[in-house]
Amino acid sequence: MSHSTVPRSRAEAQTTGAAPRAAGPPAGERPGRKPSGRLGLRLRFRRDRTLILMTLPAVVLVLVFNYVPILGNAVAFQEYDPYVGDNGFAAMLRSPWVGLQQFERIFADPAFWDAVRNTLVLFGLQLVLFFPVPIVLALLVNSVVRPRIRAVSQAILYLPHFFSWVLVITVFQQIFGGAGIIAQTLRRHGHEGFDLMTDPGIFKFLVTAEGVWKDAGWGVIVFLAALASVSPDLYEAAAMDGAGRWRRLWHVTLPALRPVIALLLVLRVGDALTVGFEQILLQRDAVGPGAAEVLDTYVWWNGVRNQDFSYAAAAGLIKGLVSVALVLAANKVAHLMGEQGVYKK
Amino acid sequence: MSAVVDRTAPERAAPEARWWQAPPRPVWEEKPGRVGVAGKGIVLAGACLAVLFPLWIVVVTSLSTRHTIDEAGGLVVIPEDLTFIAYQELLSGGQVTRAAIVSVCVTLAGTLFSTAVSVLAAYGLSRRGSLGHRWLLMTLLATMFFGAGLIPTYLLVQSLGLTDTYLALVLPSAVSVFNILVLRAFFMGISPELVDSARIDGAGDWRILWQIVVPLSRAVIAVITLFYAVGYWSAWFNASIYLSDQDMMPLQNVMIQLVQKQEAPVGVSQAIKTGQVSGLAIQMAVMVMALLPVAVISPFVQKHFKKGMLTGAVKG
Fold this sequence. Notes:
The complex is a heterodimer of chains A (345) and B (316).
Chain A: H1 10-15, H2 41-72, H3 88-94, H4 101-107, H5 110-130, H6 132-142, H7 147-158, H8 165-176, H9 181-188, H10 203-228, H11 232-240, H12 245-270, H13 277-287, H14 289-292, H15 295-305, H16 309-336
Helix pairs in contact in A: 4-16, 5-10, 6-10, 7-10, 10-12, 12-16, 15-16
Chain B: H1 2-13, H2 34-62, H3 66-72, H4 85-91, H5 95-124, H6 133-142, H7 150-159, H8 167-170, H9 177-188, H10 192-200, H11 205-216, H12 218-234, H13 237-242, H14 251-260, H15 269-273, H16 279-301, H17 305-315
Helix pairs in contact in B: 2-16, 4-16, 5-9, 5-12, 5-14, 9-17, 10-11, 12-16, 14-16
């Protein structure tokens, strides 16, 4: 068989033209430098064409479905009419250009500002009420020493992450809805029922609670991994120095979690304007747009429902641009704080 | 055989003889107080119960007879004479059966496609210094920082003529760059000597991928496959905007109509009207159908989750 695992010398491998890995370049060579730079372009192509071929399907998919639509954002500067062409592209070529008119309309629309406010409020709520839960749960699970109990509770806590939003919301309906188990029990005992699922006043808390139910358990994984990498020697040394349970938590455990917490915070802030599109869309009708409209559903409503494509694309473009700025800003802050952030400087 | 048993037996007996007995603590660690242990136990049990109790209600109600449901005034907590009539009704043809078949097919085909494309791309990008490596990687990475937006994507899918085809449920979200990065990071961790020696023996990249890299990466590929499968199984939004024919809808979309809008599924409504089966049991049965595959499969992949979550995230 050709995949025999008899190791031969690396030098031999290199002379036969196999690409040396960055993992093991000879000492003295700078790691970032491509060792194959001395080969001609044609030779490198012949050597690497299989690799390029393998990458192509993914790259083509990404180019078509992630890059091409960026150009499609041009409709935001048009009065796009889907009926002037046979398909979207043809219609785009024939639609009139209107400059920044769509943006002026958006900024004058009180519903847009409602959506902005709802989005920001939800982001704040999720940050305060959701973000700490996985950390606490991870500390809790980590302190369970019996392996079987640990594995079973992890399996249970991860489970809702794999449920669809449709399912999660339906499950919440069975508990907190007008026909849910709580309202049903109350009514049986002569009390008045209630329906939390259609109450605009508490909708934002409901959305946050659904998020916690679905994903807080899943968030535990990252923190558990960080906790597992803390050397037990640190705890022992701290205990020898007289640090009790809580002081060890404060001075050993939490500092170990700091980089992970910083990274997740950066990611979350960079994604601040995305607060749960599918989740909120599914409940938008039940509570009404006043409380439930966020930027993403605002785009959906105006574009997909009202077929006002240019207007919706403009709103989407605003959101997209602000999001990119947020990602970059969040990373900058992380770098300033001495953390790594999403990408390196 | 006996030699093996002899060698492992004392090891096994020592640290965890019974699963409810805690492994020994290091000498420097204080013995936990009773209140602390009880408190932790209650919180953890409460968290697990918060996940399991709603699922319990859904499953029990789906299995209850019309009589039990009427008696309880709706949802059933304590099971009493169970019946599979709701499932029989749903699976005997009609809207839900068709939707379930659609969901299974889209999930299988989509997962196979996505996983294959991702594994290929991850291997193709796993050798630093190969031609175009930097540019191809950047092309993929950049998409993690921006989204093109819903409307342009919608118009593109329309322009490509994908609306009202199942391709619209697969292609626009077929590759997750994050998953490719996870796989790539794992592939790059495979010992280069192994790959190099195979190359010297004349194996090409296809052969190396299939006979060395993939077998060594089974765990992480399993996790990525699960992620893709769950994504396809849970998806409903693309179907709701790209499909107009109700007969083509996958299970999640039918569930929205059924449970959220309280409509009876086509083909079962007769059975509900004649009182053979409770409408509520039907709704709950659809929910169970949607959650069962996920709940059954994901625990098996659980021990590999950490690998899938972290290898890519940290190394980038």
